[in-house]
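batch job 7 of whatever, protein = LLM class flavin-dependent oxidoreductase
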Amino acid sequence: MPSSIPTPTSSTQSLLSGVKLSMLDLVPTRIGHSTADAIRESVAVARHVEQLGFERFWLAEHHNIEGIASSATAVLIGHIAGHTQRIRVGSGGIMLPNHPPLVVAEQFGTLATMYPDRIDLGLGRAPGTDQTTMRALHRRPEDAEDFPQQVQQLQQLLGPNQYGQKLKAIPGGDTNVPIWLLGSSLFSAQLAAQMGLPYAFASHFAPRMMLEAVDLYKKNFQPSAQLAEPYVIIGVPVIVADTEQEAKLLATSGQQKILSLFRGESLSLAPPVASMEGHWLPHEQQGVEQFLSAAAIGAPEQVANKLNALLAQTGAHELMVVTDVYEPSARHHSLSLLAELVKR
């Protein structure tokens, strides 16, 4: 992605008003608070964005990462769905090579049976963890090579049961849970296009190849039984506050989190700090800023300008926001301000 995003012209000012909003949550634990607190806050924020009219609420699979409590993703999806009424709840995503497709089909088939027309199945091929944990998951590096075949098997297991079919997901068969492909490179973009599946690009942590991946997906898209035309979600870090100064203060929690990721430290969310000066070295600052280069942080109009420009560049149909803010009340307020921007 370019280092800077152009200021939107008058022709792009209205793009934000037509976009769908969704949220990605990793169930972050906060310094000084428990994992149970993190799960309660995940429920609370899901209910909040549902009231704001958000389209979907996704949770991401990660393992053995202190500070992230979304490892049992399917369990949490059921918990969130049970505490909400309308919003779609799903995975952003399930790392498919970590699991037998039959087990995933049974889990999400069960969820779809319990919560009809509300469950999404986003799939990735990364391990979502380190090499040691990969071995604990009985996953080999070469397992990712079978990802296209695994996706096809999952489609068959969740689709209509065929005469003479020997392997069935029960529940799962004929639930037709919508499958999404997620990615931060060109591989998943190409595969999503070939299979006619909706595509979500992870520009919230890997923005560099965003434009190329989205363009590749759109140009090569082949209609399927699930999807007639390409559909793109863009993940983006968003923090909206009443003032630019307040938004930048709140954003230091996320900056500290990414810095900890680079250093191999706990990712528990830290309270904001007045300045990141003295917290990072120059090369670390550059790395964090590149990591978050797609972020929209500021007062409402500043965020609107950044998101409108992002939509103009990508033609995305939906924004999947990540809001790493320490205090729940400030996090909820940020999401409310964002929803107001779209409603305008």
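notes: The first helix runs from residue 35 to 51.
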